């Protein structure tokens, strides 16, 4: 199998991972987490989102987080900006990339952002245009690309359709997300192949939730197609709101262990990454769901 020699992991823990936490995570803890991820070798991450604190209170400190970071020139700092209001609030902090989120499911789009897929693209178009005007990259992430909590299975044709819409408004990079973690390897490959009709491998990434324990298998399936960029979340931060008690984002630690075991370079120091995951897990008062982190921490304790 002709696997990529190097893989870039985009750690979404500070944003996607923390946004649904019930307890408030202060800005200084978020900044510390980001700094520890950088020290571990993460070179692209989702720092925060510029959304209404009424809807996502956990991200209400976005200005404090972005303003408090000691920005590194070798790190890409992404922020979620779902509309022009969010983009205008983010602009003074000069993010390297803005992220816009659409869905491959009409029902999910209506339930999640109260509009159709076509209307959501209209809403994102001025954000993408303004970002380009200011020299900021645009990443379009498509949620529910293989399954939806309301519609069930999603046809690959829908993924192709939304990928084209995102590209047409100026998204340079497309993320294919299995938002509820129901995907299995062949379904993931079909969704990625659908997207590849409109975007090349260098501008495509996978975002696989581990709700049903399939995220590593799905990552492997994507690697087999040549995909070399993936969203992951330190300490598996982030739940799945559509499957009560289920895990959400795949743990960065688990993906790094698998990739290193395959001889694929990530530029990440696994021990330092585990330290970052342990710090935030301790703050949240619960063990990390990362199996690799637990195994290494047990080994450290025994030694």
From TrEMBL:
Keywords assigned by UniProt, alphabetized: Lyase, Metal-binding
| An individual GO BP term | ketone body biosynthetic process
Highest taxon above the source species: Bacteria
Pathway assigned to this chain's UniProt record: Metabolic intermediate metabolism; (S)-3-hydroxy-3-methylglutaryl-CoA degradation; acetoacetate from (S)-3-hydroxy-3-methylglutaryl-CoA: step 1/1
Show the coiled coil region(s): none
Q: Quote the Pfam families the UniProt record gives.
A: HMGL-like
Kindly indicate whether the keyword RNA-binding belongs to this entry: no
Establish whether keyword Heme is in the entry: no
* Stretches that traverse the bilayer: none
> Which Gene3D superfamilies does this entry report, sorted A to Z?
Aldolase class I
* Catalyzed chemical reaction(s): (3S)-3-hydroxy-3-methylglutaryl-CoA = acetoacetate + acetyl-CoA
Domain Pyruvate carboxyltransferase, chain residue ranges per copy: 7-274
| Enzyme Commission (EC) number | 4.1.3.4
Q: Which InterPro entries match?
A: Aldolase_TIM (IPR013785), HMG_CoA_lyase_AS (IPR000138), HMGL (IPR043594), PYR_CT (IPR000891)
What is the main EC category here? lyase
Which GO-annotated molecular functions does the record name?
hydroxymethylglutaryl-CoA lyase activity; metal ion binding
Record's signal peptide: none
SUPFAM superfamilies in the cross-refs: Aldolase
The name this protein carries in UniProt is: hydroxymethylglutaryl-CoA lyase
Q: Which taxonomic lineage does the organism of this UniProt entry have? A: Bacteria, Pseudomonadati, Pseudomonadota, Betaproteobacteria, Neisseriales
